[in-house]
Write a structure and sequence with these properties.
The complex is a heterodimer of chains A (135) and B (167). By secondary structure, chain A is mainly α. Chain A is 75% helix and 9% strand. A two-stranded antiparallel sheet of chain A has the order 1-2. In chain A, strand 1 and strand 2 form a beta hairpin. The longest helix of chain A is centred in the C-terminal third of the chain and has 37 residues. Chain B is globular, with a radius of gyration of 17 Å. The chains are: A mainly alpha (135), B alpha+beta (167).
Chain lengths: 135, 167
């Protein structure tokens, strides 16, 4: 009995350590989203999955590369939190996480804003010059 | 009326390009001048509240424009554009870069190739600016910097506003 309690407690401690380690590991492994889309194969995978969720096998069939290589790309995309895994029966389906894709658009929106401001100043300048030459 | 002007902003993540297509209510010569003469560029190139200051302008093939965008508090961001091809009032291209106040290029920051086209559109002019980065991570660096600076300047103008309100 004593042994059983000791055993269970050590299992619990190990479990706590393991989850803590896993959490830190995951945090460390979170990658930059731009790394995800820097690779042409990964962009193709994103485009494919954007249409509907797919299993790793189905994805592999669409590419002329090894299953391992597809797994590697899927792992990176998952680490960038661009893909979500979903278990359906025996199969794992990958689907696109739209939230992360929006992060990129947010950056670009900011850039677009700079150009909008810039051009609106150019509008004013052109209008000023035109008015001056009319006088 | 301003709001009806064409403005396309296209990001091609595969080709690492940004394309801006914008219509202006002026003839091609005037819009060309605004893009190529420093006394005019100084009046619009840096988005508010930043202002533009030109150190060198030598608008010819092989020449360059060395300029700074200046924050209201005086902090300067220096850049340069090295002109490659010029076909007056139709097209110019160049390589941009970040530099110091003496025009020395910062080799750690990405450069982009600019192709700027000027097209007549009845009485107006359409300017197409195509900015090509070497890689997606270059584009990312620029976007992040733009975002950071954009936010700083917004906060600074808020500071100023708060100051005037206090008085």
């Amino acid at each position: 009995m004593k042994f059983l309690i000791f055993y269970l407690r050590s299992r619990l401690v190990a479990y706590i350590f393991a989850t803590d380690w896993l959490r830190n590991y995951k945090k460390k492994m979170r990658r930059d989203i731009f790394q995800a889309i820097a690779d042409p194969t990964r962009r193709a995978i994103i485009a494919l999955i954007a249409i509907h969720a797919m299993t790793p096998n189905a994805i592999s069939e669409r590419f002329d590369i090894t299953r391992q290589s597809v797994s590697k790309h899927l792992r990176i995309l998952t680490e960038c939190q661009l893909l979500k895994k979903e278990q359906q029966g025996r199969e794992i389906y990958y689907q696109l996480d739209i939230k992360q894709m929006k992060e990129i658009d947010k950056w670009l929106e900011q850039f677009r804003k700079i150009w909008e401001d810039r051009y609106s100043q150019l509008d004013d300048l052109l209008l000023n010059i035109k008015n001056k030459t009319k006088k | 009326m301003k709001n009806n002007l064409l403005f396309d902003f296209i990001v091609d993540k595969e080709k690492n390009t940004l394309t801006m297509r914008r219509e202006f209510l002026a003839n091609r010569q005037l819009v060309w001048d605004a893009h190529t003469k420093s006394e005019l560029l100084n009046q619009w190139f840096a988005p508010k509240p930043l202002t533009t200051k030109t150190k060198v302008m030598d608008f010819k093939e092989g020449g360059s424009w060395v300029y700074a965008m200046v924050e209201p508090k005086g902090k300067e961001y220096w850049g340069r554009m090295d002109y490659e091809k010029i076909k007056p009032i139709e097209f110019y291209s160049g390589l941009d870069a970040f530099c110091d106040e003496n025009g020395n290029r910062n080799p750690d920051l990405p450069r982009a190739k600019w192709n700027v086209y000027f097209k007549e559109h009845s009485e107006n002019t359409i300017v197409e600016t195509l900015i090509q980065y070497e890689s997606l991570s270059d584009l990312e660096t620029i976007i992040k910097m733009g975002m950071k600076e954009g936010i700083t300047s917004t906060f600074e103008s808020l500071d100023e506003l708060l100051l005037t309100l206090k008085k």
